[in-house]
């Protein structure tokens, strides 16, 4: 492996690890509140499938010179499995059933790709077959935040679009795009180039709606203070009336 490719691969591994670890903030909140709130578990299942497929794709007998891809995505698969497990524990019954179904589908897809590519195909055909499936689900992973982006636009709030996950996702996609270009690997370039574009879009949304979210929170807090003050005054009014009535008597 050339020095430049190795250096970029290490950077890509580091940014990918940061992206995988970024949701820990969200999951601490889920564990603390014992609720998944409006967070979606679908992106984590899709990311898990993407990690499994890329880990398989990066093995030497599938595609040479991609072992760094296998090491980080293998680590990512373990991390994402932990997130999915936590999500299942605290999700409502209907959402839990949905996640179970998605996990079963993900395992079935990965098993099919792995078995067919290993036992049926060989050489360039094996790489092409695996690479096509990798790209399909890598694009699905990068596109999965679209639902959250729609929620941000609808609610004018970035509460449910974690900043660090979006930031590290962008850095990860850019790093792997560069790695794919150095390695002349279209199956790495295409989904990560698309992911870079979506990552930039998320950053733009965050810049637009972050300040509005803060202003909205301040209004809500001010409104709460006003309501609390009003309630306090209403409670005091009967007491004042009784005191005045006592003086009259």
TrEMBL record:
Keywords: Cell membrane, Membrane, Repeat, Sugar transport, Transmembrane, Transmembrane helix, Transport. Its main location: membrane. It comes from the Eukaryota. One of its GO terms (biological process) is protein homooligomerization. GO terms for molecular function: sugar transmembrane transporter activity. Pfam families: MtN3_slv (PF03083). One of its GO terms (cellular component) is plasma membrane. It is found in: Cell membrane. It is a multi-pass membrane protein. The keyword Transmembrane helix applies. The chain crosses the membrane at residues 6-27, 39-59, 71-92, 99-120, 132-153, 160-182, 188-209. Mediates both low-affinity uptake and efflux of sugar across the membrane. Belongs to the SWEET sugar transporter family. This is Bidirectional sugar transporter SWEET. It comes from Eucalyptus globulus. The lineage of its organism: Eukaryota, Viridiplantae, Streptophyta, Embryophyta, Tracheophyta.
């Amino acid at each position: 492996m050339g020095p430049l490719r190795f250096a970029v691969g290490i950077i890509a591994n580091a940014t990918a690890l940061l992206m995988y670890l970024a949701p820990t903030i969200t999951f601490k909140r889920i564990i603390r509140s014992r609720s998944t709130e409006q967070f979606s578990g679908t992106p984590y299942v899709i990311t898990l499938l993407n990690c499994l497929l890329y880990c398989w794709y990066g093995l030497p007998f599938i595609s040479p010179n991609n072992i760094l891809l296998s090491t980080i995505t293998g680590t990512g698969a373990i991390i994402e499995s932990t997130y999915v497990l936590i999500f299942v524990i605290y999700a409502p019954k209907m959402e839990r059933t949905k996640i179970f179904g998605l996990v079963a589908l993900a395992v079935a897809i990965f098993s099919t790709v792995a078995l067919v590519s290993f036992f049926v195909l060989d050489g360039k055909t094996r790489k092409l077959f695996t690479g096509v499936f990798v790209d399909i689900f890598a694009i699905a992973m990068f596109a999965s935040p679209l639902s959250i982006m729609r929620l941000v636009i609808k609610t004018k709030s970035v509460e449910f679009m974690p900043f660090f996950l979006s930031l590290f996702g962008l850095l990860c996609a850019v790093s792997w795009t560069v790695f794919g270009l150095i390695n002349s690997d279209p199956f790495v370039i295409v989904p990560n180039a698309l992911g870079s574009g979506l990552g930039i879009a998320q950053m733009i949304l965050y810049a637009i709606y972050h300040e509005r979210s803060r202003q909205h929170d301040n209004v809500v807090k001010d409104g709460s203070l006003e309501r609390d003050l009003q309630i306090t005054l209403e409670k005091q009014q009967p007491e004042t009336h009784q005191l005045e009535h006592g003086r009259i008597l």
